[in-house]
Design a protein that fits this description.
The complex is a heterodimer. By secondary structure, chain A is α/β, with parallel strands linked by helices. Chain A contains 14 helices and 19 strands. In chain A, α1 packs parallel to α8, α3 runs parallel beside α4 and α8 runs antiparallel to α10. Classes of the chains: A alpha/beta, B mainly beta.
């Protein structure tokens, strides 16, 4: 068995959500030295995010415990990948140090982020992503007694409402933009994935409305009310928080920095072995196209086996993957975004939150590059991760290609010599 | 609303927020602590608007604050005893911190 160090490993797994955990569990029995990196404080990704008062599902607890029994797996939480200085080498940074890690094989399991579309008032404190609010509550954000409206699209909205209510909030409305016939057709076919049907039944909410979406949020210094379109009607609801997410966007920045090609869905392209376009580099889970944790788990396991040369074990999981990829396709086809969501922002609505660039300034531009040069859109701290996906949705602009460093980084880390840890 | 660190039970820890001592439940994020004691506001935007945690998962950078002198994302940082947190001061356009 090989021992992973901070500087060298056989298999580098980027991301410790379901895909990353499954990849590590598949690859670990081979004895390979494995390092896992994740910028969150604990393993689990978004769906299995740990925190005070969080009761993790058995699947998460069992996998974390199983991984702890493998001495050849080293998990680095609170650690972000900031650059790729050379092939098969990454620059990492935690709260105090920066250092380079050399690897032989890599599995990218960077998950997805929410599609956050601009609407008047979306920059007010109290407006968050939908999954974003769920993550914040798991981290201890107090919402007891607060009135919350959840809006956007997809089954995640119901899970968010359930989390908020369990934390003592009053969820007044769950506004799903898709029409009733689409949501009903989605639900009617869930018998093909019984586990999903059971999950869904447990989450039904009396405030759930279809053909409903946010129009604007009002408030002095933070959220005081939200205006919704509900079918043919406009309604105003007084509330303390609005949690709004329009589905998911694969996180491809790190994959792209490693040289991995994207597919036509703007996700990391993979073959049947979960191999990317770069030899020795695999990808699994939501970063290859979103579709839920079951798909991520089986893709992660296939990638883990393939990465250590266990092709037979990997291939044995192909039918299971096909089952969950069918679920993903079912999900995508029924929660397609309605065209009116492109018109929520008015000329004075901020689209680039980092540089405070408005819809009016951007509407005069023809492309991402022109917008960037004329308005500084996408040049702020998030490096276009929020406004890039938004402008792609609004105007069809091609999102920016990531540049190094991939994320805001300390100078001490970038000035890092060839090897050995560096102090901040 | 200040609580003395000496009163902290084992389930609570003392941290400093913008120069004032507070006790917060152990294990919560800096975002959660800021919601308890600072209305959740993390920074002021280039046009002077107050901003707070938004994406909740380390993407949007709205919750960037200074922790022990270093720039950190409040949503991905768990409060530790003695931690010193400062929210961001206003910046000029084109110079977002």
């Amino acid at each position: 068995m090989n021992t992973a160090t901070m500087e060298h490993c056989d298999v580098l797994i980027i991301g410790t959500g379901p895909a990353g955990l499954a990849a590590a569990l598949a690859a670990a029995p081979s004895g390979a030295a494995i390092v896992m990196v994740d910028d969150n404080p604990a393993p689990g990704g978004q769906i299995w995010r740990d925190g005070p008062g969080v009761k993790l599902p058995p699947g998460a607890v069992e996998r974390r415990a199983a991984l702890a029994r493998h001495a050849n797996v080293h998990i680095l939480s609170g650690t972000r990948l900031v650059a790729v200085p050379q092939p098969q080498q990454v620059l990492l940074e935690d709260a105090t140090h920066g250092w380079r890690l050399q690897y032989a094989t890599c599995i990218v399991c960077t998950g997805a982020r929410e599609l956050l579309l601009p609407f008047p008032g979306w920059t007010l404190p109290g407006v968050t992503g939908a999954g974003g609010l769920q993550a914040l509550i798991k981290g201890g954000l107090p919402v007891r007694g607060e009135r919350i409206v959840v809006a956007g699209s997809g089954p995640l909205l119901l899970a968010v409402a359930a989390t908020a209510q369990a934390a003592g909030a009053q969820v007044l409305r769950v506004a799903e933009q898709a029409p009733l016939r689409a949501v009903a057709a989605f639900a009617a076919a869930l018998w093909r994935w019984p586990a999903k049907a059971v999950q869904g039944l447990g989450l039904l909410h009396p405030g759930y409305r279809t053909s409903s979406h946010v129009l604007s949020v009002a408030g002095q210094d933070r959220v005081e009310s939200v205006r919704l379109r509900q079918g043919a009607h406009t309604v105003d609801i007084a509330c303390e928080r609005v949690a709004c997410g329009f589905g998911l966007v694969p996180n491809t920045h790190i994959g792209q920095a490693l040289g991995c090609a994207l597919n036509d869905q703007h996700a990391i392209a993979v073959d049947a072995w979960q191999a990317t376009s770069v030899p020795g580099h695999y990808a699994a889970g939501e970063c290859t196209g979103f579709g839920g944790s079951e798909k991520a788990l089986v893709q992660g396991a296939i990638a883990g086996h393939a990465a250590v040369g266990q092709r037979a074990q990997a291939q044995a999981l192909w039918p299971e993957r096909q089952r969950w990829e069918a679920f993903a396709a079912h999900l995508h086809s029924h929660f397609a975004l309605q065209p009116q969501l492109k018109t929520l922002a008015t000329p004075d609505t901020i689209v680039c939150r980092c540089e405070d660039v408005t819809q009016g300034q951007l509407a005069a531009c023809q492309s991402w590059t022109e917008a960037k040069l004329h308005t500084r859109c996408g040049m702020g701290a998030c490096q276009g991760r929020v406004c890039g996906a938004a402008t792609q949705n609004l105007w069809g602009w091609t999102p920016p290609v990531p540049r190094m460093p991939i994320t805001p980084t300390r100078i001490g880390t970038l000035a890092k010599p060839e090897s050995g840890p560096v102090q901040p | 609303m200040n609580a003395s660190p000496t009163n902290a039970s084992p389930t609570h820890i003392a941290i400093e927020l913008n120069g004032t001592q507070h006790t917060v439940p152990a294990g919560i994020t800096v975002v959660a602590a800021l919601s308890l004691w600072a209305n959740g506001v993390t920074r002021v935007s280039v046009l002077g608007e107050p901003r707070a945690a938004f994406c909740g998962m380390g993407i949007c950078q709205e919750c960037r604050v200074t922790v022990n002198g270093q720039r950190r994302l409040a949503c991905q940082t768990v409060c530790l005893p003695g931690m010193v947190v400062h929210t961001t001061t206003p910046t000029k356009p084109g110079h977002s911190a």
